[in-house]
Write a structure and sequence with these properties.
The complex is a heterodimer of chains A (265) and B (331). Chain A has one domain. Chain A is 73% helix and 0% strand. Chain A has helices at residues 2-20, 23-50, 59-79, 86-91, 96-99, 105-110, 116-136, 141-167, 169-172, 176-190, 199-206, 216-223, 227-252. Chain B is of the alpha/beta class and 331 residues long. The radius of gyration of chain B is 25 Å and the shape is globular. Classes of the chains: A mainly alpha (265), B alpha/beta (331). Chain A binds chain B through residues 3, 6-7, 10-11, 14, 17-18, 21-22, 94-97, 99-104, 173, 253, 255-257, 259-265, and chain B through 13, 16, 64-65, 68, 71-75, 92-97, 101, 103, 105-113, 117-118, 120-121, 124-127, 153.
């Protein structure tokens, strides 16, 4: 385990070195993403200026939600940047590189790239969490721990979901459109109060598009401790992580490589 | 025990077929059809520890597929293979600590970073301690003459410089076997020669065995004692490079120049005259039909010789002839 941690830290360091080769581009993308998130949140500010709450959720809940979701997305897609291009790597035969080195293929592939714009998501998420704490007027160290755990769950479920969807490439070939739709769906649904949904829609948000594990559930858990929610978060993360790993390695047996010229960035 | 042992290895790919145009696309959507492609068709061979073995063939012959099976990248459809006593597709990670691989079309160096950064990353991947890694980098930098290149971003290196850095990276963990798939692809003559020299040097210094695929026969001629030629997924020749030459280099070409004029109808028995000029001629003969001695004797008897050059076909031509034979058998 320790040797895998040292290896992943070395990968992240190399990603950082690579990003620093283009500092201006890195900072521009980061600032752009923060602005993008802020503009999106303005709509909720306008909404809550008119309606005090929606099915029990107020503006502070939304700040907690954006805090967890943006930090989770940011950390997830920064540290595991290839999670959004796994399908391309599989379809274009670029898994060869990871298969020829003595490390777990999935972990190696995911952690071999960082998205600069994700750092903007991450910074925005932390600011949103800070604002939520400020307006809630309640903060203790346990809340910070709950925030850390909530973000970890969001990262785990998000990355697992993306791996799961893109592992279908091993069976059905190109899944670029499916991946793009799945990514948009999980982002969109994770940024709404869960109380807006019930019945089948709610079930879907815990299963087929597990946005609830990335947004509402950890956000509620961060605001106030609930043992049942903690159990749900842990179970959801474990199930999706297991499924993603299982399906990916099953698919990997069908991997057919390729002969295109490649470049490692 | 051989370093690499392959028995009746087969790999079949399923290729989706589609007729041209929109109609073909719609039909493929409704009723997809697949064709099976036998990339590797029951090949068997061994490679000894420390051996430099050439594995050559034209594009699509099955060389890269075989190498990918031996590194654990691909699962074979059937057959057996062991590299250093391990089954590659079952013991991939264990094996990767013992072997190195370089694919000419798939760089492992990070494009935007200096090669030394990738070397340090590889140090972590292969679990080398920092002191050992530094010493190893210094040693390889000297052996490959890349000291001046290590801190230059890879994107700014020439292809030849980059390829030397690639091969050096693959040797950081002291592999016992190196699998090189088309390492000289796209290199100019000078860069090819430098790369060959460094591979030979590492074989001499550390006894690393090299399985080298290339469709440049010059790589094989310069480096390997033994060669396997593969075509359409099957082995069509396996022996020493010298045997390959002996068996196939039977056609000699002779360029001759005289101090005096030649008769316009100048001929020699058993020799095909390619071109006859006023003071010289170019001719070709097969040593299995016409021995060398009477030809040379005939040339000397024809007049006062100014110059004679006897040349053999290049290895490329020989291999071309072997592919041709194999294909005409298939046809």
């Amino acid at each position: 385990m320790v040797r895998h941690v040292a290896f992943v830290l070395a990968l992240w360091k190399t990603n950082l070195l690579s990003a620093m080769e283009y500092r201006v581009s890195f900072l521009t993308q980061m600032a752009g993403m923060m602005l993008n998130n802020a503009i999106y949140f303005v709509f909720w500010i306008i909404f809550f200026a008119r309606f005090e709450e929606v099915n029990g959720w107020d503006l502070v809940d939304m700040l907690f939600l954006f805090g967890v979701v943006a930090t989770g997305f940011g950390v997830g897609t920064y540290l595991f940047g290839n999670a959004v291009r796994l399908s391309f790597l599989i379809a274009s035969g670029q898994m060869d590189y990871y298969l020829s080195l003595p490390r777990p293929v999935l972990l190696h592939a995911l952690a071999s790239r960082s998205n600069a714009s994700s750092a903007g998501d991450c910074a925005y998420g932390l600011l949103s969490f800070g604002a939520a704490v400020f307006f809630a007027g309640a903060f203790d160290i346990l809340m910070l721990l709950r925030f850390g755990l909530g973000c970890l769950a969001a990262v785990t479920v998000l990355i697992s979901f993306l791996v799961l969807v893109q592992s279908l490439t091993f069976w059905i070939g190109n899944t670029n459109l499916l991946t793009s739709n799945a990514f948009n769906a999980i982002v969109t649904f994770s940024l709404y109060p869960i109380t807006l949904f019930d019945g089948t829609a709610k079930l879907l948000l815990f299963t087929l598009i597990p946005a609830a594990f990335i947004g509402a559930l950890p956000a509620e858990f961060v605001r106030r401790f609930d043992l049942a929610q903690l159990a749900q978060i842990c179970a959801g993360s474990a199930v999706f992580l297991f499924l993603a790993t299982f399906v990916f390695y099953r698919g990997l047996r069908r991997y057919e490589s390729g002969s295109a010229f490649q470049v490692r960035t | 025990m051989p370093a690499v042992s392959v028995r009746d290895l087969r790999k079949t790919f399923q290729l989706k077929q589609k007729a041209a145009g929109l109609r073909g696309s719609l039909r493929a959507l409704w009723r997809p059809s697949f064709q099976e492609l036998d990339a590797v068709r029951g090949i068997s061979f061994d490679m000894d520890e420390g051996e430099l073995l050439g594995f050559i063939g034209p594009n699509g012959a099955g060389k890269s597929t075989t190498i990918k099976i031996l590194t654990g990248i691909l699962h074979p459809s059937s057959g057996e293979a062991e590299v250093l006593g391990r089954v590659p597709w079952r013991q991939r990670q264990e094996l990767a600590f013992q072997i190195g691989s370089v694919f000419g079309q798939r760089p492992q160096l990070w494009y935007h970073l200096p090669a030394v950064d990738t070397f340090y990353l590889f140090g972590k991947i292969y679990e080398l301690d920092d002191r050992e890694l530094k010493g190893r980098i210094a040693f390889l930098a000297e052996a490959f003459e890349i000291e001046e290149l290590l801190e230059t971003p890879v994107r700014k290196l020439s292809l030849g410089q980059r390829m030397r850095c690639e091969v050096a990276a693959s040797l950081l963990h002291r592999p016992r076997v190196l699998l090189l798939d088309e390492p000289s692809i796209g290199l100019d003559v000078v860069a090819k020669q430098r790369l060959r020299m460094t591979i030979q040097r590492m074989n001499d210094l550390e006894g690393v065995g090299v399985l080298l695929t290339s469709h440049d026969a010059g790589d094989i001629e310069a480096l390997c004692r033994r060669v396997i030629i593969i075509n359409n997924g099957e082995i069509v020749f396996r022996d020493k490079v010298s045997a390959l030459k002996r068996r196939y280099l039977t056609v000699k070409t002779v360029d001759v120049r005289y101090n005096e004029q030649l008769p316009p109808d100048f001929t020699l028995p058993g020799v095909e005259m390619v071109k006859v000029g006023r003071y010289g001629a170019k001719m070709r003969f097969d040593t299995r039909v016409t021995p060398v001695e009477p030809v040379i004797g005939g040339l000397a008897a024809a007049g006062s010789l100014a110059d004679v050059t006897v040349s053999e076909p290049s290895l490329e031509e020989v291999i071309g002839a072997i592919y041709g034979q194999a294909e005409s058998k298939d046809g």
